[in-house]
Amino acid sequence: MTRLVVVDGAGGFLGRHVVRALRDRGMRVRATDRPGVALPDADARVHVDLSCDPLEPLFAGATHVVHVAGLFDLAAREDALRRANVAVARRVADAAVIARVRRFVHVSSVTVYGRPRVAPVREDARRRPESAYERSKHAGEDAVGAIARASGLPLVIARPSGIYGPHGRYGLAAMASTIALAAASGRGHRSLRSETRMTHVHVEDVASACALLCDERATRDEDVLDRAFHVADATPVTWSDVARTIERFYGLEERAPVRVTPLRARAMQIAGRLASARLARTNASLARRWEALVGERGLEHALTPRIDVDAYDYWRADHVYDTSALRGLGWSPRWPDAREGLRATLEWYVRERWLPAP
């Protein structure tokens, strides 16, 4: 039977790369996203609002689904996160049941574990979500899992670590734009240093993992169905390493850096929540300064520097994830070290005029 894969969220950061990875494996792809969102090249492109539009036409004839659509924003309201990451996941899974797809790959996140207690984390570790975003990803997994148990939906769960790479607008992208703004303005830069470690993952490597998990010609059902797989690179790096990579790209010197211990990271998080109005003013100031730089340098309106207090969770413990299960299927990252991948990503941002040149 000819394979036809529905990829939702196909116009987003990860989705566009998943579409390409599937087509590279010889699969036909029907790409979809919200009305008005530009879609990548695919065998068919359909604009659908997954939250309210009828989904039967979208899934007609589909044999596989990669559910990428969701909301990744640590500062978003919990009701918005649950609509995007739980309610939509449930609607898509229900439609996939009706279409009788052969595999449903649900893209979740390692954030379902909350703050890890051990390193590396295995897929059978207890899930302890804390933030609103983490709870929404946990609930999304539970929603599709319940549907799979009740209906026999052939479910596979992918849990990527922190994703970065071309077209990324958040996470390390926000960090990079903040440091780039400091370098361009000449106002100096307050270097923060944390020795907690994390295994990140390049977006191309997440896409290749999703394509592999979707491909029943390359992976047997008994090896992947009803299982979750971590998707992360091979090299735990400290947050100091990440910051230095960006600072060196922009030629910023390290001047009396502020050492952030896990305890201090927690204090910074609490202080940011208590002083939310002050944080909002800081982020508004960053956005204004960035907009001025965009106009001055003729950059694309793609990135915005911002500070999210919940991001300090990543500085409170090591976030290192065991990928032996996925590697056992034959997957390996093209970008095994985030420092190398991040440098290449920064060069992409400069070429595409998302960031100013050093």
From TrEMBL:
Residue ranges of domain NAD-dependent epimerase/dehydratase in the record: 5-218
GO molecular function: aldehyde dehydrogenase (NAD+) activity
Family annotation (SUPFAM superfamilies): NAD(P)-binding Rossmann-fold domains
Cellular component, GO, one term: cytoplasm
PANTHER family the UniProt entry points to: NAD(P)-BINDING DOMAIN-CONTAINING PROTEIN-RELATED, PROTEIN YEEZ
Name of the protein in question: UDP-glucose 4-epimerase
